Every structure is written in structure tokens, then in C-alpha cells.
Amino acid sequence: MESVLFNDMSLSNGTIIKNRFFKGAMSEGLANVNNEPTEAHYHLYENWAKGGAGIVVTGHVMIDQRALGEPRNVVVESDAVLPHLEKWAENGTLHGTQLWMQLNHPGKQAMKGVVKEAIAPSAIPFPGRTGRLFLEPREITPTEIKEVIQRFGNSAKLAKQAGFTGVQIHGAHGYLISQFLSPRHNQRKDEWGGEIDARMKFLIEVYREIRRQTGNFQVGVKLNSADFMKAGFTEEEAIYVAEQLEKEGVDLIEISGGSFENPTMTGQNVKESTKKREAYFLDFAEKLRETVHVPLCVTGGFRSKAGMENAITSKATDFVGLARPFAIYPDFPNLMEANQLEEVILHPKKLGIKSIDNQIPLDSLWYMLQLERIGRGKTVRANHPVWLAFFEGLFKHGKEMFQQQRA
Question: Where are the membrane-spanning stretches (predicted)?
Fold first, then answer.
């Protein structure tokens, strides 16, 4: 009997997704110095398309050259980048794979040394150690808000022109849209701040602008279940926002959670009872399913075929979102369909030296090096020593490796 993971699913616009595997966004760090896609992107995404995923979401693509989340982000803001995007889309949509471009603006999650300034809903810097990594933000003006909204739409239009099959709005993990949603970070007194209807206006207007510029194009949203921060975005607010997105006609909602301040999406600070269910945000998805009927994807924590199947058959989620397993097994779905892989075990990547482990995101660095290997046509090194990855990163990327790569 075929696993439910390989059942197809039709979205509201009639698009059929061939299975329930959703390759979640991972920052690749593979762009050239002009922030354009490279041959490494084309090869990496060809591997994922051939590997059997139903939907593949890119690492976050920035909508403004002046607003990078980290070094080597791809930026899509003019048609000059179309030839690069067309090749990326051609390779990433092989075998009926859906390739969605994740569109993002970092807001105040812009690292020192990467951009000249950071903007945010309110001029509130990150506290403590986190704050030392980022630029101190200034409050974005109403005129700039409208410009950013237009930029999201323009980038989506270019993605459609290039042959991508959809876009995903990154509204999670503490980036600009997530900052607008959070009362912790958004303390504006105008139409863009206050109660949740005002705080979510930025996200809703971004969605509407993308629809205006792309028409009947697939548009998904990545949304936090909560920030897991005091005075932050709550589960109740997340459910309300998801309900409004459904009314707007969104095609899919990917559920995640946390931010740079509290990175729950990576498995940190997750309760043991949650880990046993594998997916970190499955309980929230079950609550959301009571009132929201748009297709859902839960990302974070899935490791076994049985755990994924249970999540689908329980109807808590329609798609299983995976990221790091795809860095080790680019053909993850094909291996599961052939019964050659039942579970993947991922160990934390640490040197055991606190001064380094606390300063450098070795997990992210290690997985990025695997993505780079795939992109260069090399095989994955699943047992690659962490200490060697540290020195390789230091040699290849210099100070860039000290600048956090995020999901």
C-alpha cells in the first residue's frame, strides 16, 4: 500500500502538487558578489527537483539590494536578473516540481557589516547579546512602507516571468513582516501599529500587492505560530491572521515559530513532549485546523516516515516541511518511496568550545557547506567533522561565517 506521503493534492486554484513533501527554505549563501543566482543554485535545485519533492521553497530572496539579511543573499529587484532566474526556474521545476521563491525583507535583523542601515516598524534595538550583532534600526516611514510593499509585488512579478511556479511571503522568524505583527517590535501609533488588525495590515497589503502584480499565481505565507517572547506575537493572534489570510485567498500557509532571539524553529527550547511528536508546531496546527481550511504545511522536527505519515493522516497538516534532511539527502522523497530510508538522525554540530559554539552558528555553517557541495556537483559528507567545517568556513568565507545564516 502506497504511503499517504505520496498522495497528490490539489490547491484551490487547481494546481496539483504531486506529493506531500515540502522542502522548506534554507539560506544557501551561494549568490555571487552582485547578489545574483549562480551555477551552484541551478545544480542544487536540479538535485532537489529530481529528488522527488512536491514543493521546493528557495532560501530567502531579498527584494531590495539595500536590505540584506546576510552575505550572499539573492536579490530580485529588476529585470536584469531575469536570465539567471530563468535558468534557476528551469532546473528547479523538473519532474513536475513546484518551485516557489521565498520573498523577504530583514527589517532590523540586518547584521553589522552587511548593510549600511536597518529599518523596522519602531526604532527598538534588539536587547543584550543579540543587539551587539545587529545594526540599531530607525523607524520606517509611511512612504517607505508603501515602497517596500510595492517591491514585494515587483519581485513576485519577476519570479512569475522567470518561470517560478509560486512565491512565499516570509512572515516569520523575526524578519520585517514578523516585526510588524509583533507588539514587542511594533509600537507605532499610526495605521500600521496598535491592535492586531493594524499590525497585520502590512502583511495583508504585501499579499494584495503581489496578487495585483501577478494575478492567478500561487502565493503562500510563512507564519509564526508565536514568537515565544514576552509581549510578542501570540498563538491567538496567529490564528486570527491565518483566518484573514484565508479570506484573502492565500494558497498555502507554512507554520513555523520563533525568531533570532528565541530560535524555536531550529529545535531549541522545545519541550520533550513536543519532540516525541517530531513536528515542533503540530499542536498549533491542530488548533488552527479548527477554523482555517486553507492547505497547511508544518515545518521543523520531522525525522521519520512514520511521524510524517501520522501528521498527514491525522489531518493536522497537508504537507510535511523539511529543511536540513534535504541537505543530507537531496533525494529524500525518492529514498522514502523506495523504502531505502525510514528515518534520518541529525546530531547537533558543536566543537565543545563554548567561546566558539556561542559565537558561530556551526549548525547552519555545516549544512550550508553541504548545500555548497551539492551545488558544486560533489557528494554530501554526512560524517564531515565539525572542526573541519569550521576551518573550511573560516578559509572560504572569512568574516562572513561569523554573520548568522538563518531560516
Answer: none
